[in-house]
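Dear colleagues,

As part of the handover before I leave the project, I'm documenting each prediction I ran so the next person doesn't have to rerun anything. This entry is a single chain, and its sequence is reproduced below.
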Amino acid sequence: MKLTKINKDKSYHWYVLGRDPEKPQAIIDTNQYLVVTANKALIMDPGGIEIFSSMLAAVVKICPIEQVTHLFASHQDPDIISSLGLWDQALPNATLHSPWLWEGFIRHFGMSNISYSAIPDGGESIKIDGVQLTFIPAHYLHSSGNFNVYDEEAKILMSGDIGAALEPHDAPMYVEDFDSHCDKMRFFHQRWMPSNKAKSRWIERVSKLEIEQLCPQHGRIFRGDDVKRFLDWFDKLEVGLVED
């Protein structure tokens, strides 16, 4: 599994873990994100059960496993959090932050030791070693209970399925040609995003944030001017469509 540091802050670091060449070919490729401070760490959308061993091996290259005190699941999909039962054995003292709506569903993946911190619909902020992370509502994009993670200091938005593209595991980590990348995103957004109203509300909300990197759970990361290009493209896209 490839490890890429995506911020240059000296006091704490963001990593993306993905592009795993050893994952089963029939499994959708996913990006997992890790924030590491001096004493703690948070894994965002830690992934499916089938990549747990690769994820665990990658994480311990960055920090001791006992340093991982927090998990985040943007919603309930198996590619997001079906590895929970295995993390539950590896992280006996961690907390999972996830939408209140999905607690009864997510616990089916196995959760005896990790505690569940239910995020209210309006979102909230947490501090990890003084690093503030804000859970931004992104409901119905595509899940009815769904959140992004925003780091104001690093100017990073972990956007979950928003901005996703379905690509092979050896695709570049960053968008290099926005116009050609649109073709890789269109079907995903039109089919999995059911509500133009929810889309517009999310765009209005995140347009007020200072974002230097927009980091989806599938596909490539947007940075610099491509963040605004994506928001403009998404704003014009009609979603909730099924081709006959």
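Residues 36 and 63 are 8 Å apart (CA to CA). Residues 2-236 form a domain with the Metallo-beta-lactamase; Chain A fold (CATH 3.60.15.10).

All the best with the project,
I.
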